[in-house]
Amino acid sequence: MNRILIFYLIYCCFNLVEIIVYTIYAKLLINYLLDMGIKIYGSVIYGVSGFFFGNFVSFTSFSYAFLALNHQALLLYFYFTIFIFLNSALLIPFSKKPYLILGFLLPLIFEFLFVLKNFDLFARKIIFQRNKKLGSNLKLKKALNVS
Description:
This protein has six helices and no strands. It has helices at 3-36, 42-68, 71-91, 98-117, 119-134, 138-146. The protein is elongated. With 147 residues, the chain is mostly helical. It has one domain (3-146). Helix 1 runs antiparallel to helix 4 (98-117) and helix 3 packs antiparallel against helix 4. The chain is 86% helix and 0% strand. Keywords: Membrane, Transmembrane, Transmembrane helix.
């Protein structure tokens, strides 16, 4: 198997672990609130839906960056991943069971560090494909260097 495909497969595994652990966390949090007799308030629903939306956009943007070899989509991935990390890290002091938040926060950190570690491999592939598209067209190369 190609090295870059293994990189993408490992990224998908990290993302899957995050989703599974966060689903368990959300279920336990909702059950905890219902057992106490508290109506589920809006911030819990917002937090759960926000995590899934952010994770979906992050995964989609990284997949698009991987498939289309696009740097802009990779920036969107970094933005949403950092946002999810900061949002989750700020919830730790107010959580009843902070080890559950760490359960999905640690795979997120490992995923982010894994992507940064292998960013050179990914960037080389993007540059190689860009140069392959340019080929030997000297006018196009000069136009890109000027702008």
